[in-house]
Amino acid sequence: MDREKDQGENNEAPQAKKKKMLVAWIAWVLFSIAMFALTGPSIIEAVKDSGILELMAEESEIQKDSGKRTVDACFVSYDGSFVLYSQKQKPLGGSVYHDCIESLLSGPDYTALSQGAVTFIAPKTSLIGLTFSNGVLYIDLSKEFLKSPDLEKAYRQIKLTATDFSRVKDVIILVEGSELPRKEDYPT
Questions:
Q1: Whole-angstrom Cα distance, residue 135 to residue 161?
Q2: Are 175 and 146 in contact (CB under 8 A)?
Q3: 118 shares a domain with 39
Q4: How many structural domains comprise the chain?
Q5: Rounded average pLDDT over 76-80
Q6: Which ranges of 51-150 does DSSP label H, i.e. alpha helix?
Q7: Residue 101: domain span
Q8: Where exactly are the transmembrane stretches of this chain (predicted)?
Q9: Are residues 69 and 156 both part of a single domain?
Q10: Long-range contacts formed by 112-116: CB under 8 A, 24+ apart
Q11: Do 101 and 9 share a structural domain?
């Protein structure tokens, strides 16, 4: 009889554990649903505001057959106007912004040259870093940029290339980590 009593208690213990686990699991599911209901809309809005979806769409522009993407870079035309020229660029950085600036620093390609495009950015200028945050594109260039034959036109080439992207509201140019002074006559 004691043996039957012990077996009855043993059967009840696993049943009680199962009930506790079920209650804990249901509580966890309800808590998760409540948290998603409270934070879900703000998370969705944050993802939309971050522009990551647009950036992912831009990344898909890479042409699979040639391994290059088409980017727009601003050069000075034979008549002195600033014109955006489409160029093929091998992806070098993590974003289309990076590749556009690399293309600009490389100078006009053959097609743009044949249309009279020139650059005022010093030839040995290199891109040290690039960051996009809150609508501002921070572009860090090597000190060779300061040797550009016409610094104002070089600055404007970079600014017009960068602001061709709808998400870029402002451009900050750094030279070796220090902000390039904004002169009154620089176009803003």
A1: 15
A2: yes
A3: no
A4: 2
A5: 88
A6: 52-59, 96-106, 110-114
A7: 64-179
A8: 21-44
A9: yes
A10: 112/73, 112/75, 112/85, 112/87, 115/77, 115/85, 116/77, 116/78, 116/79
A11: no
Residue type at position 8? G
Lookup: tokens for 70: 């088409």
Phi, psi (deg, nearest 5) at residue 114: -65, -20
Lookup: tokens for 102:
């690399």
152 band by pLDDT with thresholds 50, 70 and 90:
very high
- Are 70 and 141 part of one and the same domain? yes
Give the predicted TM-score (pTM) of the model. 0.61
* Domain co-membership, 75 together with 151: yes
Tokens of 91: 């992806």
Burial class (CB in 10 A: 0-12, 13-18, 19+), 55: middle
The answer on pLDDT for 64 being more than 60 is no
Where residue 177 falls (left for φ over 0; alpha for ψ -120 to 50; beta otherwise) is: left
Q: Are residues 117 and 167 in the same domain?
A: yes
Q: What is the identity of the amino acid at 62?
A: I
Q: Are both 77 and 11 inside the same structural domain? A: no
Give exposure, 111-147, as e/b (b: 16+ Cβ within 10 Å): ebeeeebebbbbeebebeebebeeeebbbbbbebbee
Are residues 108 and 32 located together in one domain of the fold? no
